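Need a sequence for this fold. Nothing fancy.
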């Protein structure tokens, strides 16, 4: 019994010495300044074509265990879709401006974009294939504009956090949406 106590005591001392050395090494490391301010770009914001598109507002209608009902209101058209409950909750938190103590992947993406000087210009919902909406997230870094294929629900969660508009193809809205005016 006495030998086990002595061994445990020696292990504790070794741990404390190692931990003390670790803390000293951290103190001697150079400090890295992190700039959380909005990156100011010397390049103008790109104009994106919106002809044939209607700006849309998104809302969450119902969240079930693993699925959720999402509505897009584009002018006089209401479109409804089903998405993952996780994504719907992320969209809802974005709409409410809430940030949990553990950020979602969408919070991290928008924060990374901001720190890299990438501006989210818009989300466009282009078409429907096999009962699935197809979208593009439009981003700009300096003088480069990229169109990224993305699920509209994921794109919405990002666009909302970046305060970027969401557009839907007007023909698609008329074909799939319900006229509500």
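Here you go.
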């Amino acid at each position: 019994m006495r030998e086990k106590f002595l061994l445990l005591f020696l292990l504790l001392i070794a741990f404390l010495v190692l931990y003390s050395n670790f803390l000293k090494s951290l103190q001697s490391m150079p400090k890295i300044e992190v700039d959380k301010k909005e990156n100011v770009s010397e390049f103008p914001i790109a104009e994106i074509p919106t002809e044939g598109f209607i700006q849309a507002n998104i809302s969450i209608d119902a969240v079930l265990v693993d699925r959720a009902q999402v509505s897009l209101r584009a002018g006089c058209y209401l479109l409804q879709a089903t998405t993952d409950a996780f994504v719907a909750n992320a969209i809802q938190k974005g709409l409410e401006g809430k940030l949990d103590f553990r950020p979602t992947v969408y919070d991290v993406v928008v924060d990374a974009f901001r720190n890299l000087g990438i501006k989210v210009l818009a989300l466009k919902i282009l078409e429907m294939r096999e009962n699935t909406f197809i979208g593009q997230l439009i981003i700009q870094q300096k003088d480069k504009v990229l169109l990224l294929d993305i699920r509209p629900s994921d794109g919405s969660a990002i666009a909302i956090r970046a305060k970027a508009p969401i557009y839907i193809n007007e023909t698609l809205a008329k074909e799939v949406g319900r006229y509500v005016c």
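For context: The chain has a mean pLDDT of 87.
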